[in-house]
Design a protein that fits this description.
It is a single chain. The protein is α/β, with parallel strands linked by helices. It has one domain (2-196, 209-260): 2-enoyl-CoA Hydratase, Chain A, domain 1, CATH 3.90.226. The chain has 9 helices and 10 strands. A hairpin with an 8-residue loop joins strand 1 (2-3) and strand 2.
Length: 269
């Protein structure tokens, strides 16, 4: 396995071993995301599609959490914080547009989920085609528990996997789902022990890479085209709702309560 591409100024590395690449996030322990990180992942996907013979990608991360969303506060312990979406104007510089680029990548992606995939971090995980999870993995669309609105295209990607009824439950409660329930719901495709997680994700990617490379890309384009269009439309809507909710007292209370590890006292204002 060898490093490819020049991603030295980013929080990711890109390794290629024959036809399978590993794109790894290096922002441990919780891999909080930001625009630069998500842009780097999308750039890596484009690079692998145009500059290499890569046929499948493993998306992984270093540390305790897969991706715990966007960091907004510090805590006294080592637990992941929660997600708030950056409020920058829409366009190529917006994090959601980079998420759309991840969705429309030409090469299939298998995510290795070793820990928490929370808020926008769940959104990142669900841009992948497949997810392999360790028993320690946790999945949560926790936005309503912050007095906020979900983002990163979860309007589309979450019900696509689990169905509308289950998606509504997850979005309205913000509850955390353990790996065994995630497997039943469809949030992940397999659950394996932590020590075998990367190996299993790579094995799945290798199986994809045995297929004809032009067919792999053509099939993903066909299967993803409608989803990408829906993702962009959904994130436009999500951002509108996020912007006004960001100004509410309940949103501030949600952030304070989460940082203090207490139940929020929402007032509907």
């Amino acid at each position: 396995m060898s490093l490819v591409g020049d991603f030295s100024e980013t929080d990711i590395t890109v390794d290629l071993d024959e036809f399978v690449a590993t794109v790894e996030i290096h922002r441990p322990p919780h891999n909080y995301f930001n625009l630069a990180m998500v842009t780097a992942i999308a750039d890596a996907y484009d690079f692998l599609a145009t500059e290499t013979e890569c046929r499948a990608i493993v998306l992984a991360s270093e540390g305790k959490s897969f991706c715990a969303g966007a960091e907004f506060g510090k805590s006294s312990d080592d637990e992941p914080q929660e997600e708030i979406s950056p409020g920058t104007p829409r366009g190529r510089s917006h994090i959601y547009e980079q998420g759309a680029r991840m969705m429309q990548a030409q090469i299939p992606v298998v995510a290795a989920i070793q820990g928490a995939a929370i808020g926008g971090g769940l959104g990142v995980a669900l841009t992948s085609d497949f997810r392999v999870a360790a028993p320690e993995a946790r999945f949560s669309a926790n936005f309503a528990r912050l007095g906020f609105h979900h983002g990163f295209g979860l309007t589309v990607t979450l019900p696509e996997l689990v169905g509308n009824q289950a998606a509504m439950n997850l979005l309205l409660t913000g509850r955390r789902v353990k790996a065994d329930e995630a497997l039943v719901l469809g949030l992940c495709d397999e659950v394996v022990e932590q020590a075998q997680l990367r190996e299993k994700a790579r094995s799945m990617a290798n199986e994809i890479a045995l297929s004809a490379p032009l067919s792999i890309r053509a099939i993903r384009r066909t299967m993803r085209q409608g989803l990408v269009d829906q993702f962009r439309a959904a994130t436009d809507r999500e951002q509108v709702e996020q912007e006004w909710l960001r100004k509410t007292a309940d949103f501030g209370e949600g952030i304070r309560a989460t940082a203090a590890r207490r139940d929020p006292e929402f007032q509907g204002i």
